Amino acid sequence: MKREIINLKFAHSEAKDHGIDILTIDERYKTHNTYYPDQSLPQRLEFYVMMYVTEGRGQHIIDFIPYEIEPDTFIIIGKNQVHQFSAQQTFSGHLIVFQETVLQRALLNFDTAIASFLFDPINSSAYRINKATPLLPDITRLVEEYQHGPHDSEWLPIICHALGIVIYKTARLGRHLNTPEQRPQFPPKLIAFSNLLEQHYTSHWTAKEYAAELYISTKSLGTLTKKHLDHTPKEVIDRRLLLEIKRQLAHSNLSIKEIAYELGFEDPSNLNKFFKRRHNLTPTEFRKTVRSSI
User: Fold this and answer.
1) Per-residue confidence at 166, pLDDT binned at 50, 70, 90?
2) Cα–Cα–Cα angle for 55, 57, 60, nearest 5°?
3) Lowest-confidence range among 14-18, 197-201, 221-225?
4) Which residue intervals of 13-155 are DSSP H helices?
5) SS3 label, residue 183
6) How far does the chain reach from its first CA to its final CA, in angstroms?
7) For domain 188-291, which architecture applies?
């Protein structure tokens, strides 16, 4: 059986493309084209998704982490993450999908750094919300505005602001942030490091090379990552590369040798050593184990 990760580009369901689309999960399942492929195939998103489930139960997998779905589940999927719907649809709700340009515009009146926390390309998030959660009315308002709005140039700032409120309140909900003093701090250099890592993880840059690109010392970079991510720079770098290896092993037909070269290893044996040292399994063992479970 052919295995591959589908790179899913943003495509709009309406004639006018404003970089944001809100549709029901049922609509997504009923449509099978380049935008909505076979539900059971792994998909790497080139945009952002917020999924609000209103009815039903099931499971959704994001980068090997299964999330149990039940009513009032709110799931965040970041750009470049790999996710899979279950082969059988068992839940309903809404998908809020949007591009980078819309994300930036949505956060104009908020702390733009919260996007780095909420849409982490390595870690996804799931929340349980109910009628008592302050976030729920804002999700409802966003969906209704999209469904009934005129979708013209004057409407776009309104929908972006409504999206920004949902994003901001979700970030606060995730950290149980009740006061300004509790809000997470995202130093610009840390955000820049995250962006650089996403661009260059296959180049196998060292912490020193990332620090140089950021015009800070390696020690300063280490202080940032340890304080805010609880990992050393090397651990952060290795986690990103390890995740990509796991994705390829699970979802592609590439040989281990081909994966090694594609991800910047000079010799396949180096990938084997790197992987086993951090995962306690060889790449072959991991591929066999993970494929038996998906």
Assistant:
1) very high
2) 115
3) 14-18
4) 25-30, 100-106, 114-118, 135-148
5) coil
6) 13
7) Orthogonal Bundle (1.10)
| Residues pairing with 73 in the sheet | 53, 128
**Residue pLDDT, tens place only, 197-209:** 999 999 999 999 9
The whole-angstrom separation of Cα 75 and Cα 80 is 15
The alpha helices in 149-293, defined as continuous H runs, are: 156-174, 188-200, 207-213, 218-229, 233-251, 256-262, 268-279, 283-291
The SS3 assignment for 188 reads helix
Bridge partners, residue 67, by sequence: 60
C-alpha count within 13 angstroms, C-beta hemisphere, residue 159: 23
What CATH superfamily is the domain 6-182?
A: Jelly Rolls (2.60.120.10)
Please list, in sequence order, all residues whose beta carbon lies within 8 angstroms of the beta carbon of residue 157, skipping any fewer than 6 positions away. 105
